[in-house]
């Protein structure tokens, strides 16, 4: 937090040079929320011609502006800067919007909406303890969530036949970036779990080949599969839905972070975040008091 405070001090100092109040449109991922102090910490994307991407606390004028914010939420907001201070205004949570429009996908997405509305398994919420589960990795070794207690766990869900660069490939690339950024902690304090929702095709051997594409290092980054019923139970925990569609799959996108005590911290839907934002959220969990 000292580094964050230093960045904020530099930012406010720079703001003092501004002759008149200005508004900037900003986007980022929420890392934490402090309602008593009316602030939230956000991993911000670059604001062109103004400031680089950085992590910093943002003040709001009214505590109600923080309603609905939680770690992992993607937000857009107006950054108001005058000669003496700055604050975030008009904060909006950016919901994931799948832009595919073909009729088959549209019908599947409607089904997804129906399930999300309460007619399917209820996903865990932030703060919930994640039930134990066991799957097998690309080396056919069992992986039990309870066996990772004491470590931060990041999970995402893919299938290896997905060819769209902004879907499963993007989620896998996010973990490749995390693997590089947290190389020293990987396997010790941080474990990455990539779960397939297509276990019929994605055998351990298929996942092992896929893992080499990302230079995944065991035991830090493990690709999981298992019996279809077991995989389905894990997917249901995080609200992951996947349906076969003419040889491919329509599916939701989820990335989850679990703290050292096995509690869900964030379940991020979609792909509208950067690897840096995900890394900053992960870093905040690694630095949290054990």
Can you describe this structure?
The protein has two domains: 92 residues, Copper binding periplasmic protein CusF (OB fold (Dihydrolipoamide Acetyltransferase, E2P), Beta Barrel), CATH 2.40.50.320; 185 residues, Glutaredoxin. It is elongated and about 60 Å long. With 290 residues, it is an alpha+beta fold. About 7% of the residues have low confidence. It has six helices and 14 strands. It starts with a helix and ends with a helix. The strands form four sheets. The chain has a five-stranded antiparallel beta sheet. A hairpin with a 5-residue loop joins strand 13 and strand 14.
Got a strand count? 14
**Count of folded domains:** 2
| Gap from first CA to last CA | 16 Å
CATH topology of the largest domain: Glutaredoxin
SSE string, helices as H and strands as E: HEEEEEHEEEHEHEHEEEEH
CATH superfamily of the largest domain: Glutaredoxin
Name the structural class. Answer: alpha+beta
Helix content estimate: 25-40%
Q: At the first level of CATH, what is the class of the largest domain?
A: Alpha Beta
Low-confidence stretches: 12-18, 99-110
Radius of gyration: 20 Å
Tell me, rounded to a whole number, the average pLDDT.
86
Largest sheet: 5 strands, antiparallel
- How large a portion of the residues is in β-strands, by DSSP E? 25-35%
Query: What is the approximate shape?
Result: elongated
Please give the order of strands in the largest beta sheet.
3-2-1-4-5
Do you know the CATH architecture of the largest domain?
A: 3-Layer(aba) Sandwich
Question: How many distinct helices?
Answer: 6
């Amino acid at each position: 937090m000292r580094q964050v405070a230093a960045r904020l001090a530099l930012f406010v100092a720079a703001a003092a040079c501004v002759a008149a109040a200005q508004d900037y449109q900003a986007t980022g991922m929420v890392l934490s929320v402090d309602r008593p102090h009316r602030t939230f910490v956000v991993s911000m994307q670059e604001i062109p011609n103004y400031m680089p991407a950085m992590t910093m606390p943002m003040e709001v004028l009214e505590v109600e502006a923080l309603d609905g914010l939680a770690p992992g939420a993607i937000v857009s907001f107006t950054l108001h800067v005058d000669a003496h201070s700055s604050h975030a205004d008009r904060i909006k949570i950016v919901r994931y919007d799948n832009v595919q429009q073909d009729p088959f996908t549209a019908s599947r997405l409607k089904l997804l909406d129906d399930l999300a509305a309460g007619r399917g398994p209820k996903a865990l919420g932030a703060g919930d303890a994640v039930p134990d589960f066991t799957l097998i990795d690309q080396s056919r070794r069992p992986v039990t969530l309870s066996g990772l207690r004491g470590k931060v766990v990041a999970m995402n869900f893919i299938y290896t036949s997905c060819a769209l660069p902004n879907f499963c490939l993007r989620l896998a690339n996010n973990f490749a970036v995390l693997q590089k950024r947290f190389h020293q902690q990987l396997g010790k304090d941080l474990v990455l779990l990539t779960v397939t929702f297509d276990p019929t095709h994605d055998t351990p051997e298929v996942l092992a080949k896929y893992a080499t594409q990302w230079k995944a290092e065991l035991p830090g980054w493990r690709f999981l599969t298992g019996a279809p019923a077991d995989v389905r139970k894990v997917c249901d925990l995080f609200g992951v839905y996947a349906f076969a569609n003419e040889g491919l799959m329509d599916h939701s996108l989820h990335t989850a972070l679990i703290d050292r005590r096995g509690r869900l911290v964030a379940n991020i839907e979609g792909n509208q975040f950067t690897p840096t934002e995900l890394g900053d959220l992960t870093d905040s969990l690694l630095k949290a008091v054990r």
